[in-house]
Design a protein that fits this description.
CATH architecture: 3-Layer(aba) Sandwich
Strand content: 15-25%
CATH superfamily: NADH Oxidase
Helix content: 25-40%
Number of domains: 1
Bound molecules: flavin mononucleotide
Shape: globular
Structural class: alpha+beta
Number of helices: 6
Strand order of the largest sheet: 1-2-4-3
Mean pLDDT: 96
Low-confidence stretches: none
């Protein structure tokens, strides 16, 4: 899939088919995370693949904003090192890489960031030096995605040469 086409059509979904995503696609998604750029090439992200029903249910139970993760085929917990002031930027880049690689294979996804941190650390054995920067749930979309994005127009978010100066093409 053309990269810009993927950007235009990908929506964050939370309803998934029961069908399993093949192991090779899961590996490709993790590879996309591994290939992401990071500040000073520090590569401090760590990814935990959660692919069994019981752990997905636990993820849902200890989340405030990602209850839908129980219906995913698998999830990836993204950890980044708080040693790097830019660690959340790196998390965002790895997450975007993984979501686009997934969409290229027809796999939908959504991120969530609301969870009981203590229980996340206990359950998944997460060391204190890592921030839990996001959890992404993945799976085949339950229904056809119609690709309508609710976004501000370009002129409202982009300027020419100076803040506030209108841009047009
Ligand atoms: C930093 C970040 C945090 C998010 N946290 C949550 C969350 O906790 N729960 C959730 O269901 N969606 C979460 N989302 C998904 C957003 O709501 C979604 O990306 C946004 O509504 C745009 O969706 P769309 O691309 O389908 O239009 C988060 C997205 C981002 C980028």
């Amino acid at each position: 899939m053309d990269v810009f086409e993927a950007l235009k059509t990908r929506l964050e979904i939370k309803e998934f088919e029961k069908r399993h995503v093949p192991a090779e696609v899961k590996k490709e998604i993790l590879e996309a995370g591994r290939l992401a750029p990071s500040g000073m090439n520090s590569q401090h992200w760590r990814f935990i693949l959660v692919d069994n029903g019981e752990d997905l249910k636990t993820l849902a139970d200890i989340s405030m904003t990602g209850k839908w993760v129980k219906d995913c085929d698998f999830a990836i917990i993204v950890l980044t090192s708080t040693k790097y002031p830019w660690h959340l930027l790196d998390a965002g880049r790895a997450i975007t890489h993984m979501q686009l690689a997934a969409w290229n294979r027809g796999v939908g996804s959504r991120i969530y960031t609301g969870y009981d941190e203590k229980r996340m650390r206990q359950t998944f054995n997460i060391p204190s030096e890592y921030s839990i920067s996001g959890v992404i749930g993945f799976g085949y979309p339950a229904r056809k995605i119609l690709g309508r994005k609710n976004r501000l127009p370009l002129e409202q978010v982009a300027y020419l040469n100076r803040y506030g100066q209108p841009i047009s093409f």
